[in-house]
Amino acid sequence: MSIFRLGDQRPPEPRRINDDVVMRFDHVYEVDPEKMRVFPQQDLPAWDTERIVAARWDHLDWMHDHFADEVLSTGLGSETMPEEEG
Amino acid sequence: MGSAVDDAVLDELRAIIGDTDRVLDNVSSRAVRTRVPAPFPVHRWAQHMPDVAVLPTSAEEVSEVVKLANRLRIPIVPRAGGTGLSDGAVPLKGGICVDVKLMNQIHEVDLVDRTVTVGPGINMLKLNERLRPHGVFYPDDPASYPCSLVGGRIGTGGWSLLGSRYGHTRDLVISMEVVLPTGEIVHIGEGGGRKLRKSSTGLTLKHLFTGHQGTLGICTQATLELVPRPETEFAAFFAFSDYMDAWRTTGALTKSGLATLAGVVLFDEWKLRYLRRDDEAYIPQPEDVRAVIAVAMYGRRAEVEPASKIVMELGRENAGRYLGDEISQGDWASRHDRYATPLHGRTLDGQAVPMSWHCEDAALNYSVLPQVREEWHAIVDRYIREYGIFDDWGMFAYTNGAHKPWGDYLVEIDVGIWEQRLDDTNWEAWVRCKREIAEVSLKYGGSITACHGATRAGDAELVPTEMGTSWEVVKRIKRALDPNNVMNPGKQMLDEAYE
Amino acid sequence: MSDTSSNGHEREFAERWRDNAYGCFSSGHKFCREVCPVMQVTRNENHTPTAFHANIVAMEQGLVTVADVADDFVHCTQCGACELRCPNTLFTGDFYRHRTRTVDVVKAMRALMVETGNERPAWKLWNERLAADHNEPVLGDVPVSQEHVADWADGLDIPIGGETVLFVDCEAAFYRTSYSRAFAQLLQLAGVEFGLMREQWCCGGPAAEMGYADLARKHAEHNVADWRAVGAKRVIAPDPHDYIAFTEDYPALFGDDYEFEIVLGVELIAELVRDGRIRLTHPVERTVTYHDPCRLNKRKGIHEAPRELLRAIPGLTFKDVDRVTQWSYCSGGGGGLPIEKPAITAEIARRRVERASELEVDALISACPWSERPLSDVGALEVMDLFELVAVSAGVTVTA
In this predicted complex, what is the ipTM? Predict the structure, then answer.
């Protein structure tokens, strides 16, 4: 059960991934905030990031299922980044 | 500009339509039926508003409205989803916007002769949700699949991601009911029967009425192809350090003779740089991933599974590296949504700003893809550096031949335009940029539009050039069917037919 | 210096909401249209979320005034489907920390309508009664009052105050009292300690949705003061509309001062069942399907707990429809729509019930009391609340 506490909603500080991208939550990339000075970012609480990421995967799964009964996999991971999941 | 739609006309429209809620002349109803997603001259919005919008529910209502328009020489602008990437539904001369979204019924599902008959206001995703329990599918799958409507697909002569397997809109629409520019309600198809796919009786009119950009009439009902719902989907993405290796591999895949191949997409180096900005699949990729190919197959497992093994071989033949199941499947599933969100835009100093998306859609042959890519990027680069309000989001080349993956390609360069900075100077610059891009397509024996339509400035002026000797035939047909030039006037240079 | 001459309000508003407006207007692809419950019924482009955002740009360009667009902005249940489905949210909202916010835009425009003398008549009346009675006039001509706001709890001996307060919304306190009793009795069965408020005003959420921002603030201040007065640290919100008010509207009003823990009712019940503190021992031999309330599924991403509960009920045949398909479903009950455009709400609800009926079930189970009224009014299918169903299986007798 999730209990909403306002204090928990503040996103963690970003750590740098590359010149353009940072990361606050595991596996969730974000734009370097420095690039959002002309068009400011919104106040996005943690629950909202979580909701969007979960919804995106749900939507993609739904799209597969909408078009075909099954998705054929090769069982192979990334050949460009073999040490990661890809 | 004085409006031809005065109170007397409004009264007549209300008498035809019957329901005053479906004759909308207030400013907000007109303002929201002006633009489409293509880059828009915001500063000239008022010039493009229709004078009134009507929301018909039957072919008879459409017919009477069109007859009225003919009598009084008032322009008609048909509008289905308003999701086109060219300006087919943008009024150029005011007039009556005929908005067909209420005509979204499924009239008949025939599982024996494998057709579904619908109104033009229905969306393909919503249609397929209703067809699913029957094990059938209408495979017209553009990147606007969740939002475009059948009427617009017919009007633009749409292209489908799955076209190499199932064909495009004009292959998937079997017949239709059309209100001609003079108001008659006619059957248009392949011969007489509504559900016939192939005939040689009389003159075959179906192709003429697909892709006319709303200039030859308004579709009020369409009978569509039903294919068996695919059992199996297979998608594979391959990375290349050299674009030319990717291009060669694209050739090999598209000429492989695999029948379940639905589409192949070639991403160029600029596209990879763009994807690295904000796409989670590409951000972590190593520097030497410079080009990518996406391949998708649909059909029975018995056919797709063995074919998939050939695809995996071919995909890696020219130093291609598989991006893995997770990225292949996730990225493929995202292709049914147009993904050029505005914040992909970057100013010259790297700031993210919302940019409107120009999606070029030239049709070009395989042999010229590498050269066109170089010339197009050079053009856009010039404009970026000079005006500071454009951005280059890279190129795709998609298989374009219906049932023929080896055929031509829908070649796309995605240009971002900072709409908030548009004024007359910048807009004119944009139009020039667009024209230069289109001229390259013609130079290399291509077409300036595979599927969006040449209905906007930058493209339209070149229609006569591209049509060449057939332009005269086109004009005669237009004048014959639309003697008063009421049906979407000003589009595609067809006003020349009346000079 | 604010310019209150004609178009002054429009330009100020457009300035404030410019980024949101262009975030949509620069795209204009309308992935929102087919998931929007209002658009599915009216098919009128004026009611697209795209039009809502475009109108702001139109205001900036001096093309429209508030009066011109006021009626358009009534056509929204604030279900959140559009802003979630929008690729600006779904594909890049988390990346850029900038997403589509149609709900906020609609609320803000409705507030501007109130400020500029463009109030809607039925909403005006509704909120006048709310201002007078402190609860929403959910019983029609029969007045509601603070005197009776806790009558639903008669005989349940629920104390006032304490560390954990149960918030019962207006619809559940006065209209669908079976809902409140079922929920409270389930908590008591599980031995959860909780109390009621001294004075329970409406959460203020609906007032905010209809554009009555000052009234909403007044209610929020009152409720928070009441919570503090009884030493509450935690608020249980069974109703999804209240959950949204307490986790979004109230933090926006109070900022870092907002110290309360908010617990969603359905997640609490699911945990109690999981932990064995509520035992579902009575079989319910029925065939049902579940309606994902918009304010749980789309607005908050909450869809597992209710399904876990349904699957835990012995004897129940549960025919599910997945949560993504349900992005385009809605009861039509939210955003004040039933008050101003009851015919549209009725049609939205009719279609929702039709989808359920197609599954050949004998009941539609929802987890939101505001949805249950329009869905029940369709009359074609029995509509129950999840808590009411769980109570049956837990052997609790709920007398409404």
Answer: 0.96
